[in-house]
Design a protein that fits this description.
Number of helices: 11
CATH class of the largest domain: Alpha Beta
Distance between the termini: 42 Å
Number of domains: 3
Radius of gyration: 21 Å
Number of strands: 8
Order of helices and strands: HEEEHHHHEEHHHHEEHHE
Largest sheet: 3 strands, antiparallel
């Protein structure tokens, strides 16, 4: 028996926004759907969007899902998350956002949240005239023939979810869950991503070593610039915000606001989003801490 959260069970037994959207044939309104998966693979999702064209905003979202408890709950959760968002804001939603909305998912069921993210992308791409077949993830070397998963798609999911094992990759995209002949290729991709990750701090450190050291004012200004231009827009799109509180040497203190301040994953936001970005673009030795104001 899977250990499901109360939110997952509630949206499974009482799903919201289930069904299709009928095109009202009204000015400034478009209805489009995106679908991923297949019944043969065990899970399939069709996500319907009602879009106000003049402002590129999602007015309504409905879903039709064939799948397990997690698939239905993830699809229902996604429709709630994206209502009222612009298309660009919706494209910033990750499978982790869906899982967090549900209070977490068993790791073996994380592919259901990935399926929701992909259906959302497919619908928006279709609306914008980008054929699903032209999505970057659909091109490239086919790694898992059982589920039709390409190397770029595996790479993207590894990076976005910080995956470190082949088993995790299978849990998130099902690759390797069939005949198993692709397991070695998945492991090769994991190792390649890990090498690339390790090389980034080394490259930044080398660049910093060859550059003139930052003055305290320059460091603060650069940190503020990265927060304003790279991090705040993402957080604001999800109802949150971040403010620079203090800089003491290499210790950076930030205050999370709005939805981010109440989010159970705020520690992950600080460490894996803010700290990683500041280390990459300012100094590899920076340590970011959250403070409550």
């Amino acid at each position: 028996m899977w250990d499901y959260s109360e939110k997952v069970l509630d949206l499974f037994y009482n799903p919201v926004n289930q069904g299709a959207i009928v095109d009202p044939n009204e000015p400034d309104i478009a209805v489009v759907y995106g679908e991923v998966g297949s019944i043969a693979c065990g899970d399939a999702l069709r996500l319907h969007l009602k879009i106000q064209e003049s402002v590129d905003t999602i007015l309504d979202a409905q879903f039709q899902t064939f799948g397990c408890t997690s698939a239905i709950a993830s699809s229902s959760a996604l429709t709630e998350i994206i209502k009222g968002k612009t298309l660009d804001q919706a494209l910033n939603i990750t499978n982790q956002d869906i899982a967090q909305y549900l209070g977490g998912l068993p790791e073996a069921k994380m592919h259901c949240s990935v399926m929701g993210q992909e259906a959302l992308e497919a619908a928006i791409f279709k609306y914008r005239g980008i054929e699903v077949e032209q999505h970057d993830d659909d091109e490239g070397h086919l790694v898992c023939e059982c589920y039709g998963i390409t190397e770029p798609k595996i790479r993207r999911v590894i990076i976005e979810n910080d995956l470190t094992t082949v088993e995790q990759v299978t849990n998130y995209v099902k690759a390797g869950g069939g005949c198993g002949s692709c397991l070695a290729s998945i492991e090769d991709t994991l190792l390649e991503v890990q090498r690339e990750r390790a090389a980034v701090p080394e490259r930044v450190a080398a660049e910093m070593a060859n550059a003139a050291p930052l003055t305290p004012i320059q460091k603060i200004n650069r940190i503020q610039q990265v927060l304003d231009e790279e991090i705040r827009p993402i957080l604001v799109a999800d109802g949150g915000d971040v403010e620079l509180f203090d800089v003491d040497g290499d210790r950076v203190q930030v205050s999370l606001k709005g939805a981010c301040g109440d989010c159970a994953s705020s520690t992950s936001t600080v460490k894996y989003a803010i700290e990683a970005k500041l280390r990459e673009q300012v100094l590899p030795t920076l340590i970011v801490e959250e403070v409550t104001v």
